[in-house]
UniProtKB/TrEMBL annotation:
Residues 1-54 form the Late nodulin domain. The keyword Oxidoreductase does not apply. The keyword Cell inner membrane does not apply. It comes from Lens culinaris (Lentil). Keywords: Signal. This is Nodule-specific cysteine-rich peptide L21. GO terms for molecular function: metal ion binding. Residues 1-27 form the signal peptide.
Length: 63
């Protein structure tokens, strides 16, 4: 009985941990201009849209 209870408690802790982490995935940075956003690379482009840095597109890789 103790093993079942411990497994249940462990599963609940993991579930709550992942739910709390998933809630913060879309945490946007505040910005006023595009320069306030993270640096762009050849695969990522960030723009300041509605005072939040947003990931706008991924450039396709062609061989």
């Amino acid at each position: 009985m103790v093993k079942i209870t411990l497994k249940l408690v462990h599963a609940l802790i993991l579930f709550l941990f992942f739910v709390l982490i998933a809630n913060n995935v879309n945490a946007y940075q505040d910005c006023k201009v595009d320069a306030d956003c993270p640096q762009n690379s050849w695969t990522r482009t960030y723009r300041c849209i509605e005072n939040k840095c947003r990931y706008t597109r991924v450039m396709e890789y062609n061989e």
